[in-house]
Write a structure and sequence with these properties.
Protein name: Glutamine amidotransferase domain-containing protein
Strand order of the largest sheet: 16-15-17-18-24-23-22-20
Organism: Nitratireductor aquimarinus
InterPro entries: Class_I_gatase-like (IPR029062)
Oligomer: single chain
Shape: elongated
Structural class: alpha/beta
Largest sheet: 8 strands, mixed
Helix content: 10-25%
Keywords: Membrane, Transmembrane, Transmembrane helix
Length: about 675
Amino acid sequence: MNWSLSFEPFFSWPVLAALLAPVALLALAGLWTRQRGAWLRLAALAALGAALANPVLLDEEREPLKSVVAVVVDESQSQTTIDGRSEMTDQAAAELEARLARFKEFETRVVRTGRASSATENAQTHLFEALDGALRDVPPSRVGGAVLITDGQVHDIPENAAALGAPVHGLITGEADEMDRRIRFERAPRFGIVGKPLEMTYRVIATDEQRGPVEVRVIINGEELFIEDALIGRETRLEIDVPSAGRNIIELAIDPVEGELTDVNNRAVALVDGIRENLRVLLVSGEPHSGERTWRNLLKSDASVDLVHFTILRPPEKQDGTPINELSLIAFPTRELFVEKIDDFDLIIFDRYQHRDVLPILYYDYIAEYVENGGALLIAAGPEFAGNQSIARTPLISALPGLPTGDVLEQGFYPRLTETGERHPVTRGLEGSASEPPEWSRWFRLIGIDRPDGQVVMQGANDQPLLILNRKGEGRVGMFLSDQGWLWARGFEGGGPHVALYRRIAHWLMKEPELEEERLSAAGRGMRLEITRQTMEEGAPPAEITTPSGNLLSAELGPAGPGRFSTGLETNEIGIYSITNGELTTLAHVGPVNAPEFGDMVSTLERLTPAADATGGSVRRIADGNLPNIVPVRRTGTASGNDWIGFRTTDDSVLKAVRRVPVFTGLLALALLLFAFGAMWYREGR
């Protein structure tokens, strides 16, 4: 029973004071002047005040509350991938929970954390974040303490651990004499220029005393390039050439040694995005025409393109008597462009160009050879392509994907995608192509060709080829059989997607990886592996996946649009996945690159010791299977000893019921008041 006195006045305290204060002053004045009956008047006033204040005795029934003890179990990959740690952790958690259950003073909350539900969680071990979540609804006075069952590799230890106000104990799994070697990148740029050297640095770290050289294998995009020696503990310089545009995976690997804890961290990965140095394009316009500046403006607007543009304004056969020294025209540097520096260009465009002896006939052989050796050529044809001076009547004929029939069709038509074009990356999904007729303007000229060689991706009037893309040797050739694309650029009848189309054509010719017809790509999005296959076929076979641990998986690829098939897999392993689909193979890294979780995997007491000391807790190993005893302690007591750990108890309680006993009510209060006032009246009357 808990008795206490409380007041429940009939009026508010200010009103009560206002009523009694004048009477009290009169009573005190009577005492000061020693008037007769002053004490009786003061007693009557006190009885009246007590009646109005209404004193009440309270009997409270309370139930004591328990202290909350959090048991945080580390289930991160550094725990689960190393033999013995997971079993040791589970046994310790079960035994600790059973021991805590014997104490009525404690409420136990077990939190298991570290399993990969996201890339961030799988990258680091956040035990204190889990601890904060477990105790978020508990008042500080009821926190009894916490136990972290872990290997000691915790990555979110707060600087102000003492703010918890209760002891934090660490029970460390793993052995005291573990040996491990690991490799990590010290400096790894995110971007590099394709074909140019990229400087990186790395370091090999070991827990043993070895200081000799270690063989480091350098692997780029799954292909081992070379092996070099590195000294343990010393930052080592590495120089590589960025092999390709887009994502490149750079791996460094060291072989495991006998007695090593794990080989999971024997690899380091860097993702380098290859950026192509400015592409050089040579644009030769055979004559001024309405669409000449369309190609020029598009290429000039692309920051990744260096454009060299010539327009033939004065062909050699033009003789009008103007002295050479009075001409302001620049001579066309044919030898410099097509002999000396032709290999410096990534793309050559002939825009309505015809053979008029500007180029020596031998130079067309050089251009055809340039294409065979890996160059790119685009023919933007006009009526001259069908005439007697067509470049198809030169040695360039060997590189062209079609020969002119001599027909020039002059009528309105809508450019349309062919079945091939609906799947080809250059024309696939062009805005306006899905409707019939397409939601773009008409063109009015088409050059006829015979027996097209390559992929016809667009067609014009009478289903005649309009855009042909072809591979020739190591190079590529494109042929646009109309000079009417400028109608789209000028907005005629609403215009059309000329920017997207022209840019895709140019970049396909220059071998942009994302525009390849047959392409397998994969990427990690968090802990999800996404696979995409581009193909000109009607379907794609299942993808064969090799996980970082060597397991083999198979995944069906579903339609994701014309010419595209994709799938996505939720994964629980961080690392490099190898994906094969048909004859294509690619790599993808899932999860954080070089996650701290896989950096240092040797169990340690050092990380948690400062936090435990700040809170009055302790850190100890449990590899021998002996758990410390549990002792309830007061809030100011010591919380750890040689073979025991303590948790604080609380004085908090919850109110279950209250019994009220009024003190100054009923007949007793009435009798006291009558007696006091009667005595006062009697004394005053004498």
